[in-house]
Amino acid sequence: MPGGAPPPRRDERAALRARALRMLALREHGRAELERKLSHARGTGQPPAPELLRRVLDELQAQGLLDEARFAQSVARRLAQRHGSLRVLGELKRQGLDDELARHALREAESELEPEADRALRLLRRHDPQPPVDAAQRARQMRFLQRRGFSAEAVREAMRVHAGGAQSSQSSLHDDCDD
After folding, report:
1. What burial letters (b/e) apply to 18-56, b meaning 16+ CB within 10 Å?
2. Helix 99-111 × helix 68-80 angle, to 10°
3. Average pLDDT estimate for 3-16
4. CA dihedral of 155, 124, 87, 72, whole degrees rounded to 10
5. Separate counts of helices (H) and strands (E) for the chain
């Protein structure tokens, strides 16, 4: 065909769409992630044409099968159970989501969970049930929480309660405020 590449065959589009649907059936994907995965050559040895890939992804979004907000909420919910807000937000941005969508997904996920300081305390007690006995152990426990993306405030509060050590592992930070 003069003046450019031939139009994609119908079966190429159908095969690309089928691959995308198989991936989406397993779990939610963001557009950038799905585009990256689908852009690799498969079967024919040639990657799909960028225009074809863009059209297939646009169709999936228009049909509601590929949804960035749903993907963001899924990632945020999964990560927020074991990580702090900073880590969750960083991961959402790394997945190619814009700042506003990432922050909204994080707020929604955190509204369904216990407060960040409680999650930090629960994770710390599971990792190291004993309160710190010296400054070195305290620093190690604090770094553990910081690496998981908990805010400085959540780390301080969790360490304060954990260092008290008198509470059972089932109590939360809010029990301290009941007095």
Report:
1. ebbeebbeeebbbbeebbeebeeeeeeeeebbeebbebb
2. 50
3. 72
4. -120
5. 9, 0
* Span 75-85, pLDDT tens digits: 999 999 899 99
CA 14, 15, 17, 21 dihedral sign is: positive
Exposure class string for 91-109: b at 16+ Cβ within 10 A, else e: bbeebebeeebbbbbbeeb
Centre a 10 Å sphere on the Cβ of residue 160 and count the other Cβ atoms it contains: 13
DSSP letter for each residue of 82-99? TS-HHHHHHHHHHTT--H
Q: pTM (2 decimals)?
A: 0.75
Q: Dig out the tokens for 156 from the structure.
A: 């301080």
Phi-psi region of 149 (alpha: psi -120 to 50; beta: other; left: phi over 0): left
